Every structure is written in structure tokens, then in C-alpha cells.
Amino acid sequence: MTGIIVLIASLSLLSLSTLVSADELDVKYCINLCHTVQEDVKKCSDMCSNVISLLDKISASRRVDVSHEIHDIKLCKRYLSESYKVLDWSHSRLEELDGIIDKYDSIREMLLVEAMDGENGLLSGLSLLEDMRWNLQELFGKLSRLEAICRDFLEGKLGEDEFMRKMDEAVPDAVGYARSVRDSSYHFGSVVNASLCRVKEIVEAWEEKRSKEEEIKRTEASRFKKALMALVAALILSLLPGWIQQYISAIIGLMTALMPFL
Q: 10 with 127: CB under 8 angstroms?
């Protein structure tokens, strides 16, 4: 089952790459897709609340024991709540990553490649997001089905046995899809964090290298300035009368001799 889901997610990403140019598959695209998945998570969570409310009505009005079903749908909602929080955390990290890449325009391409490519790059994160979207679509379908089953039972369109049978068929699948979304969200968060850390390391090394280069430039500029001043002073001295030259040279010699004691 897991292999099939991964294959479908990979095919989804492949079809996505035919619709989106390579230049568009950047951090901003990841941010937008992450937000879309968050919205899908919220919709499914709201649907869980609807199903729980209907099951509570069934338990109160029809005297049917649906405590197990209520527990499982609440578990779905908890999985979705975890997913939303992790995606929200990932979204903020993606915005931080995007800000860093935009700030360092001179090495933007290098940073973007480091962020997107590789085993833990954001391209693999896009595959995870597509996987989550697929599971959320399936989950929403299952929850919609459960909502319809509950309404039909409350309206007397279904008998208790048929109601319980249909619930038993749909509820475990819903839990499985919600769990898959939760697991993928944590994996996605790990990928985002790894990409951000790699980019930060590159920026830190680049800043250190640039700082050293600027220090070397300042040192060389200082040496050149001193050499130029010495040359100008020597030129001026050469234009003065001989006795003045001797007097100034004596003063310079005296200052040089006293320098170690000052």
C-alpha cells in the first residue's frame, strides 16, 4: 500500500513538473503548496468535527453505541491537528529560507540548488506535499461518506446493522489516511529544516570568506596609503635646504630610537 502511494505521489510530481517550469519550482512554490495543503488539512479537520457532532446525536437520540467510532474520528482530528502545526512550522521555516536566498542575490543560484536538490532537498519535499494532498483528498471523500451515512441513519434511511457495517468499512480507512498525512508532515518538516540548515551553513562560510577578503583589502589599502605618504614626505624633504633635511632626519632618527620605550 505504501509503495503504491509513493508511486502515485511520484507520478503526481512528474505530471506537476510538466505544468510548472523548472524556474518556478523554487522555495516560493513550496511555500504556496504548503499553504494549500494546510487549507486542505483544515477542511478535513472541520469535516471530522461535523461527523463527531452527528455521531453524538446518534448516540443520544438513537441509543446506538458509537463510542468506538467517535474515538477513531477524534483520533483523525488529532492527527490532522498535529499535521497543521507541523506544516505551520515548516511554512515559517520556508519563508525564512526564501528570505535568506533573496538577500544573497550574488550566490542565489547556488543557494537555490542546495535548497532544492539532493536526498533531503525541497524537491523531495514537494513529493511529500503531493502525497499529503492525495491522502487528504481520499480522507475528505471518506469523511463526506461518513457524514452522509450518519445523516441517512438519523433520517431513518438506514437500519442499525447496515449503518454499523458501513461505518466499519469507512472509519478505519479514514484513520489510515489521517495517519499518513501526519507522518508525511513530520517528514516534510525534517526536509525543510535540513534544507534551511544547509543554506545557513553555506551563507555562514560565504560571509566568513567575504569578511577575510575585505580585511585583506583593508590591510592592503592601509599599506598603500602609508607607502604613498612616505613617498610624498620624501619628495617634499628632497626639495628642502640641506640643513633642514639634516635637522628633520635627526628628529626622525630620535623618534625611531625612542619608539620602543613609548
A: yes
First to last CA, the chain: 83
Q: What is the pLDDT of residue 181?
A: 97
- The CB-side HSE value for 222 (13 A sphere, CA atoms) comes to 6
Distance CA 79, CA 30 (A): 22
Average pLDDT over the chain, rounded to an integer = 81
How do the domains of the chain map onto residue ranges?
Answer: 2-215, 216-261
Number of residues written out for the chain: 262
pLDDT tens digits, one per residue of 10-33: 444 444 443 444 445 688 999 999
The CA-atom distances, in angstroms, between 36 and each of 6, 41, 160, 175 are 20, 9, 38, 21
Q: Are 76 and 139 in contact (CB under 8 A)?
A: yes
Distance, in Å, from the CA atom of 96 to the CA atom of 205, rounded to the nearest integer, reads: 18
Q: Could you tell me the sign of the dihedral formed by the alpha carbons of 76, 81, 83, 84, in that order?
A: positive
Residue 229: CB partners within 8 Å, gap ≥ 6? none
Q: Cβ neighbours of residue 183 under 8 Å, at least 6 residues apart?
A: none
**What pLDDT digit, counting tens, does each position of 42-53 carry?**
999 999 999 999
User: Once rounded to an integer, what is the mean pLDDT over residues 182-192?
Assistant: 95
Q: What is the pTM of this model?
A: 0.73
Cell, residue 129: 506535499
Distances (CA, A) of 140 to 67, 73, 129: 21, 12, 16
What DSSP designation does 119 have? T
